[in-house]
Amino acid sequence: MGRGTVVLSYSGGLDTSICIPLLKEEYGFEKVITVAGDVGQRREELAVAEEKGKKFADRHYTADLRDAFIKRCIFPSIQANGLYEGYPMGTALARPLIAEEVVAVAKKEGATAVAHGCTGKGNDQLRFDAVFRTADLEVIAPMRERNMTREWEIKYAKEHGIPVPVAKDKPWSVDENMWSRSIEGGLLEDPAYHPPEEIYAWTRSLSDAPDTPEDISIGFEKGVPVSLNGTAYAPLDLISTMNTIAGTHGIGRNDMVENRVLGIKAREIYEHPAATVLLASHADLERLVLTREEYAFKRIVDDKWSEIAYMGLIYEPLFAALTAFIEKTQEKMNGTVDLQLYKGGVHVTGRSSPDSIYSDEIVSFDTFGIDQVHSVGYSHYYGLQARLTRQKQERRK
Ligand code: ARG
Fold first, then answer.
1. 254 lines ligand 1 (CB under 6 A)
2. Ligand 1 atom closest to 91 (CA)
3. Are the C-beta atoms of residues 289 and 330 closer than 8 Å to each other?
4. 146, 168, 190 - which closes a domain
5. Ligand 1: which of 45, 77, 124 to mutate, most ligand atoms within 8 Å of CB?
6. Is residue 175 part of a domain?
7. What is the CATH number of the domain that holds 186?
8. 159 CB neighbour count, 10 Å cutoff
9. CATH of the domain at 113
10. Closest Cα to atom 7 of ligand 1
11. Hey, which residues does 227 pair with through a beta bridge?
């Protein structure tokens, strides 16, 4: 008895590859359709997914999600200063978008189910599920449903003609998109283990980084980067150029222990050179442009936005509400930030904006700007409530 068609989110790796025969033999589907999302990962990785998808599945789709990823995920996360526990989110931003694409293909193909190859330990299962479960489709995740051992997986793959990567050339698990690259697993699971240089692909080590600093400037319009060194760039080019430049200077490496949604602590290593530079410049510009009230409140909103984004709850109504607040604040986020890149560090050297509310006339030691005598009156009642409380306490003694 067949169960129709299932659409599988596909990376070309061992886990998602064995899902193809499993979905037929163990779950009883007649047709398995694979979908690989292009979110700017290595071209070879995408090509492998496409080749294997075409070979092992009944139909394969490669969806170019790069523009959508930038406009719907990366740009909003720059505007929200999107950090989770201090690092720029990457995987968290991309997963829901890929999940939406899987659902769209399922609808188009008249499928009855959608599937992913995530384990039951990580965040990605939740990010997929949150989107998958909004559609009227069965959700299947063989990896977490069957507690398979690596040994069984390898045997099963071999029996089905699926190539098994040699343990030696894939000792770590990598997830990549244009905003971030994460490396985890294998020996890295011991948080005390010092990672070898070879795990890094986007960043130079500090000893290999150039000995001369590089000065750059980033232009922003409405809170998103639009130019580099005075030249307008298309978003995708800007991000990839920044990855190259900042990566050369060894910027954007991050080795940390992170709290996953389920509460599991995980040792994760990230590379995100462009994100480090663009987030630092955006955050700096906000200090020039936003009022104290906007700035202080926005930090709370940014934190909450980032937490919801990390959890992959993109349909949470609060997420849309926070995004609307953030967008409103970004209307006047225009200007330029100058930076110096040097040996893993990014240092802001200057900033300017047509929307700046900075006034050198007012702040300067050298000019009058405001009549300081007015501050005498202001300061009289400053801290009034604290003073009254203290007086009460003194009298009680
Ligand atoms: N810890 C990061 C996150 O939760 C990275 C996860 C990487 N995912 C993966 N399947 N390797 O976003």
1. no
2. 12
3. no
4. 168
5. 124
6. no
7. 3.90.1260.10
8. 10
9. 3.40.50.620
10. 175
11. 219, 232
Q: Is the minimum distance from the CB of 172 to ligand 1 under 6 angstroms?
A: no
* Closest atom of ligand 1 to CA, residue 90: 12
How far is C-alpha 19 from the geometric centre of its chain's CA atoms?
A: 26
Q: Cβ–Cβ contacts within 10 Å for residue 371, how many?
A: 8
Is 75 within a domain? yes
Q: Which of 168, 198, 220 is the last residue of a domain?
A: 168
302 belongs to a structural domain: yes
Instruction: Please report whether residue 110 resides in a domain.
Output: yes
Per-residue pLDDT reduced to its tens digit, 196-255: 999 999 999 999 999 999 999 999 999 999 999 999 999 999 999 999 999 999 999 999
Catalytic residues: 15, 95, 124, 173
Nearest-CA residue for atom 11 of ligand 1: 175
Distance 215 CA to ligand 1 centre (A): 32
| 39 closest CA partner among 8, 17, 71 | 71
State which residues form the domain around 62: 5-168
- Number of neighbours of residue 108 by Cβ within 10 angstroms: 11
Is residue 13 located within the same domain as residue 156? Answer: yes
* pLDDT tens digit sequence for 89-106: 999 999 999 999 999 999
